[in-house]
Amino acid sequence: MYNKYLKLSTNLHQHNSGFSTNVANSSLCDDIDECANNISNCQQICTNTIGSFVCSCIPGFSTNLTNPSICDDIDECATNTSNCQQICTNTIGSFLCSCNPGFSTNVTNPSLCDDINECATNTSNCQQICTNTIGQCDQLFHL
After folding, report:
1. Which pairing describes strands 61-63 and 45-49: parallel, antiparallel, or unpaired?
2. 121: closest CA among 140, 102, 107, 108?
3. Residue 9: which pLDDT band, with cuts at 50, 70 and 90?
4. Which residues, including other chains, have CB under 8 Å from residue 45's CB and lie 6 or more apart?
5. How far apart are CA 93 and CA 74, in angstroms?
6. Which residue of 61, 70, 78, 135 could cross-link 102, Cys pair, CB 3.0 to 4.6 Å?
7. How far is CA 143 from CA 84, 126, 128, 129, in A?
8. Where are the beta strands (DSSP E) in the chain?
């Protein structure tokens, strides 16, 4: 915590909002740390400034337009900032990517989906000839 001293320009010993009168020298004002004193009402991040404070938000949130002390969740799916290849699910402060049936999440890039080769993994239930197609397998019958 830091104190900034400001010399009063008058002998009225008044101070602006965000300052209090210095105990040792009443002609000086001390900065009030609104963050440390929990009077800022910032929902997430409070940064003390000289004579005031600023509220901000952690990643995944944005400052509310009508009340800057409140943080709103950013819907990364609705704003197309998620880069999910197939399915995007918004969560509080973040998002999750998932894949349609017949696909699995890419191991190195979880926003991408890889085709599951049901023929190679023996999960196709094919009884004769199995041909993998994107997202599924086709069963071929020979008569």
Report:
1. unpaired
2. 102
3. very low
4. 55, 56, 57, 58
5. 7
6. 135
7. 43, 15, 11, 12
8. 5-7, 19-21, 28-31, 45-49, 52-56, 61-63, 71-73, 87-91, 94-98, 103-105, 113-115, 129-133, 136-140
Is the pTM value of this prediction over 0.90?
Answer: no
What's the confidence (pLDDT) of residue 7? 40
- Convert the pLDDT of each residue in 43-92 to its tens digit: 999 999 988 899 999 999 999 999 999 999 999 999 988 899 999 999 99
Tokens coding 83: 């880069």
Please, are residues 30 and 5 in contact by the beta-carbon 8 Å criterion?
yes
Are 70 and 64 in contact by the 8 Å Cβ rule? The answer is yes
Using the structure block, give the residue that is written with the tokens 């290849």. 85
Average pLDDT of the residues of the chain: 79
SS3 category, 4: coil
